[in-house]
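User: I'm writing a tutorial on reading structure tokens. Could you give me a worked example: one chain, its sequence, then its tokens, then a sentence or two explaining what the tokens reveal?
Assistant: Sure. Here is the example chain.
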Amino acid sequence: MTTRVAFIGLGTMGFPMAGHLARAGHHVTVFNRTAARAERWTGEFGGRGAATPAVAAKDAEFVFCCVGRDSDLRQVTLGPDGAFGGMETGAVFVDHTTASATIARELSGIAEERRFDFIDAPVSGGAQAPKTAS
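And here are its predicted structure tokens:
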């Protein structure tokens, strides 16, 4: 089964995580604040790059996010052209950022108001974990 997914944040952890989704056959659209990183990802894995988080999230069934900290997460979700502005009813936002419980609760409440789901799923383990996962 192929799923339309978006991945926001292609850093040390996000780049390989998004790659695993593409290799599994999902249709992946990526956004990274440094456009060259997104271009590198699409060159390696295919998929599409998006100019904004909202464009990446449009029509995605699942939106995955892995950025650095609370302020980064707030920017890519709620900022101008943020992912939450592009998400549809019934979609699922999965946050892999190791962020505070405060922002997780805030974003969960906003997602509920906008009728999509929010899952707080922080990752740990450094760069080796996503590179070696199968």
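What the tokens reveal: Residues 4-132 form a domain with the Rossmann fold fold (CATH 3.40.50.720). The chain is about 40% helix and 20% strand.
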